Give the backbone structure.
Amino acid sequence: MTSAENKQLMAIRARKQSKAMTIALSPGKQLGMNAFMLWMSGKNLNIFSISTTSTAVMSPIKGILSVGTAFRACEDPEGKVDLTSSKALFVLLNLIWFGVGMYKLATMKLLPLTSADWESYVVWKHLAETSSIPP
């Protein structure tokens, strides 16, 4: 292999690595805009706030499940391009985005976080005896 071919392969690998990092940072670019939309939708239950919140919860899940297909264009057949850091950053930013969506669900009181939300699962004791003497 000549030095010109070697330089060309190195340039291609560098381009693939930079493209992988661009793909990895894409959820971070969407995070700010979606956080602003979630803030603007308010805490009331209406169709706009529910649709933006469902987008904030479902899009990161879809992104995490499609990590392999998102980075397929950046893979090197020889395995010389390291995509683990890019994939880890992609998953981390999607998890942060998912956390923002779950926080929004909690502020809208749609997540069962208090003990009153689980009251139907409490097993109440039935007393065998009762007394007429006051305590």
